[in-house]
Design goal:
Arc Repressor Mutant, subunit A, three-stranded antiparallel sheet, two-stranded antiparallel sheet, elongated, DnaD-like_sf, WH-like_DNA-bd_sf, Putative prophage replication protein O, DnaB/C_C
Length: about 325
């Protein structure tokens, strides 16, 4: 079974020329000659002319012997064919305004444009579906990769907690690092199980790290990849985890335009304000762009230098986490 591919060679002809050949009242033989010359010219490394040393070669496209001169002379007189008899080259005139061929009887430009629009829309939908499949496949691969890394991180964290288990009198310290997923605001705190869900990855617990002593903030990588963004959107911004192809397109555009860090922060804002739509996220991103970046959290205080952050004692999220984990 034939399986033609573009990399095996193409005849690159502008759509305008194809449209003109379709709508003009060419005979079958005339169209055969046009296609034959295009194949031997633009189909051979894009050259403009076809070298045909003997007219008998036109038998290959179905022109009977004895009709070569008549058909070629007719196309030349109609301004369609440019012929150099000495060099034995043939070229289709790209200036179709010079063609003296009438329109076909059934041509309707409005219907043709309508049909083009239908096919272009169908092509976009197919491409979008393929893009969704690829994105989901990559997201699953990323989850598997993160799962193996997080198992190692969990073992290291448990070992660190065991070493600090006998230490007493240390003040509970909540070290701030950018959450992997959106958090709720104080005015509308969700149930405890939702807090756990928003701040917990399927393969490892990624709650805002509450440790005695110094929290290992450096051990947590800040993941702003599209895979992470997509996973969060699929889990917290959709019904039953169904992401449409149009949502994928919009989310991809936002990621490529503003970057993963800004997009993740805008998603947190959407959760806090209970407006979980891409339109709202886009509005937040536009606001970031106008201000030169996201506003910093008012409850965030710098402690001990720019690399070490600590939430204020009256921070509502910190209070809720203390209640959940009895710290």
């Amino acid at each position: 079974m034939a399986n033609p591919q573009p990399e095996n060679g193409t005849v690159r002809i502008a759509n305008e020329l194809w449209d003109e050949v379709i709508r003009r009242d060419f005979s079958k033989r005339q169209k055969d000659i046009i296609f034959f010359i295009w194949r031997l010219s633009y189909g051979c490394k894009g050259q403009k002319t076809a070298y045909i040393p003997k007219l008998v070669y036109f038998e290959l496209c179905g022109i009977p012997t004895g009709n070569f001169h008549r058909e070629l002379d007719r196309l030349e007189a109609l301004g369609v064919l440019i012929r150099d008899r000495e060099k034995k080259t043939f070229e289709i005139n790209k200036n179709y305004d010079e063609w003296k061929v009438p329109l076909g009887g059934g041509w309707n430009e409005f219907k043709f444009d309508e049909l083009l629009a239908l096919n272009l829309d169908e092509s976009r939908q197919i491409n979008a579906k393929n893009r969704v499949k690829t994105t989901r496949k990559n997201a699953l691969k990323q989850r598997d990769f993160e799962g193996s890394e997080n198992e190692i991180a969990l073992k290291q964290r448990d070992a660190s907690r065991q070493n600090n288990a006998n230490l007493e009198g240390n003040r509970v310290k909540i070290t701030h690092s950018t959450p992997d997923e959106p958090n709720q605001d104080a005015g509308s705190q969700p149930p405890i199980d939702i807090i756990k869900d928003i701040n917990t990855d399927s393969s490892s617990t990624k709650i805002l790290m509450l440790n005695q002593g110094t929290a290992p903030a450096a051990s947590r990588s800040k993941d702003f990849s599209f895979s992470k963004i997509y996973t969060i959107y699929e889990k917290h911004f959709t019904e039953n985890g169904n992401v449409s192809e149009f949502e994928v397109q919009d989310l991809t555009d936002q990621f490529e335009t503003y970057g993963g860090e800004w997009l993740l922060e805008a998603m947190r804002e959407a959760v806090r304000h209970k407006i979980r739509t891409l339109a709202y996220i886009n509005g937040v991103l536009n606001g970031y762009k106008a201000r030169g970046g996201p506003h910093k959290d008012k409850n965030l205080q710098i402690v001990g230098g720019p690399a070490d952050y600590q939430l204020a004692d009256d921070d509502p999220i910190a209070q809720k986490l203390r209640e959940v984990y009895q710290l």
